[in-house]
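Hi W.,

Here's what went into the run:
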Amino acid sequence: MITPKTLSGFKDRLPKEAMAKGAVLDKLAHVFKSFGFVPIETPHLEYAHILTQEQGEIQKEIYRFKDHGKREVALRFDQTLPLARFIAQHHSSLGLPFKRYAIGNVFRGERAQKGRYREFTQCDFDFIGSHSILCDSEIIQVIIAGLRALDLEEFSVWINHRKILNGLCQHFGLHAQEDTHTLLRVIDKLGKIGHEGVLLELNAHFPKIDFKEFLGIINTKQEEDSLEFFKRVDHLKSYNATLKEGLEELESLFALLLALDINPDHFKVDFSIARGLGYYTGMVYETTLNQLTSLGSVCSGGRYDNLSKSFSTQNLPGVGASIGLDRLLVALEELELVESKSTSARVLVVCMHPSHFVYASQVAQNFRQSEVNTELYPEIGKLKKPFSYANQKGHEFVVVLGEEEVQKESLTLKNMTTGLQVNHLSFLKALAMVKE
Amino acid sequence: MITPKTLSGFKDRLPKEAMAKGAVLDKLAHVFKSFGFVPIETPHLEYAHILTQEQGEIQKEIYRFKDHGKREVALRFDQTLPLARFIAQHHSSLGLPFKRYAIGNVFRGERAQKGRYREFTQCDFDFIGSHSILCDSEIIQVIIAGLRALDLEEFSVWINHRKILNGLCQHFGLHAQEDTHTLLRVIDKLGKIGHEGVLLELNAHFPKIDFKEFLGIINTKQEEDSLEFFKRVDHLKSYNATLKEGLEELESLFALLLALDINPDHFKVDFSIARGLGYYTGMVYETTLNQLTSLGSVCSGGRYDNLSKSFSTQNLPGVGASIGLDRLLVALEELELVESKSTSARVLVVCMHPSHFVYASQVAQNFRQSEVNTELYPEIGKLKKPFSYANQKGHEFVVVLGEEEVQKESLTLKNMTTGLQVNHLSFLKALAMVKE
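Here's what came out:
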């Protein structure tokens, strides 16, 4: 006997969870399509050298191995590098601008922790081939529309601009790009190690710089109305041109978003948002749920100058974001915003004798032809079993077909919620009760 | 520069193909749910020993490697062994009978051939935990309903029974289970190597047996009405009890299916259907499209006695089938049954100046709020570009917003199919034309 178990850090989704995930993905895909985003698919497996460009911790986490042809291959760890490869490979036939979404699993051999998995689902959407602020505005709109479609109401997309962070670095004497990247990576840990932790790390990296004032600015979060906020931080424009540009681009973005039918609480400025990844160059954002801030960001993204620079000389700027679906599902469950059923059928049909199989199959088919999802219980015997099955799985109605029902071409219908049972109904009357 | 390319045997799906696949999966999932099947998900990666039970060619094709924790792991090559592991692991919380569907990618390091990929999508549905013929009937119904939902009209599920094949083996002097398996694997190649090829191979394996009459029976295919067919082959029941049982079970199945509202051309008997896999014990079937028989089977399956026997002492019989989605998509494209668009948006909104960005964003949002998928072209400049973009991608309407439109809060609408352009419409009039 082999012990049936999944690998550590990997998990099965049972029907209830898989149905909840499917419902969430359907709603998100509906939103993506409403903005004209189209789906693409890339393989789970790529040449290893395609995926080993991004530096940092992630390299140790990549699943890589030699395939049957001795090629070095790797399982994708995100959907951004595959997108970069995809765009460079197909851009001539795709036509630019190009707006894609991709829902897929990625793999990271991280240390196993509660709620963190080594295979998880990402839901990415990117707008490639344009510098226009309309794209930035659209990605924010999609995030907000997507979360609203899931009945989430209290959340904010926290927006920052890399030019603001770069401008601040310049102002405080950090000029080398490498130093800025180091600083961004430390800032990115604010949520994990806190203000004091960040200060300690920064002092260790750059002992000559006093980061108190710097961190004071970084800790600026919009609490008031957008216009008032931009007034409050307007003096920063005088620090340098980079900072000024960053702030002005944020102002333009907010002007666009405020003109739309969107709750202004859903998008706010937060100067501490850094995003660790190297490729971001413009706006960056994270999204938190007000009731579950400890969960961290459920959707993060930003603008990048040139996604495919390792693959192509063509300049391909873009902006995009990624929803961490597993985390989002945890949140929706905690907020009781997911349906909790283990069956896709509303009606369970039960019969009492093999000689009723034909009639039972016909009744089930009739319900289905009337757009009522219907399951036929395959076993005969005591009624206790199918009824407890229906209770366990969540069928709304049980149809019982005994000798008398079959002879009269009728059926007995029990409403599992109210407990009401009606005997010897015609099919049409039963259908009317189910559809009521 | 890195050359952007996928691994040999792996491929990207561009939007047109990914959208067609998505539409097909939505329709199939709708059918699965109508019968009460529920989705589950298992990881792409499993302990290697879980996947290395099935014998044969497939073993050489498995992608296996050591993970970061030195565990022997493997990418799944089908969704049946993971299902067996899943059921054994979770059956107490699932409740039996259990009907699952699973749509997922599997990996096989086969020799690269045209139209064969090393990563491909399978769409499985199984009914676990019951010996009832209602389950067999249901799986056939699901296959037929699934293909009908894709607008396929001319196809047949070719059904056989392992007991018929086993009974024939007995009759012709092959008694050892091993010999029967060998014979089944050779019979399974009929489509590939033909009658003569099979005869040669069988003679090589079993030189003492005359296979002419045997192959004559194996080549029996239903062409007439079911009742007449069963009369034609009725004499085989006298060969032995196993053959008799197999034929009678097929007769019961056909009696159930013929009583339903299903075209009887969609299910027929074919004694040559063997299915190579060891775990089948009852009915087995393959599905061919009449106009594309050379494509082979698009959906195959059958009944197995005990799916999880390697993992559990509990007896878990079942019946299920698997749709090869990639092959099915090729067929649908050849039969011109897939939509051919590269955009999910019906309307493309174009504006002429950055000062119109707010108005353009509002117009696009208004269309979306009226359930019209709408894309906003992010660049300004000559109209030639967005129009050729709309032509390439397949937008039905282009909305143009110039100085005059913005001032009058109006819009200009061009129908890309008829070429008709109407200037200075109110939003409501434009919406009416789009929804017409």
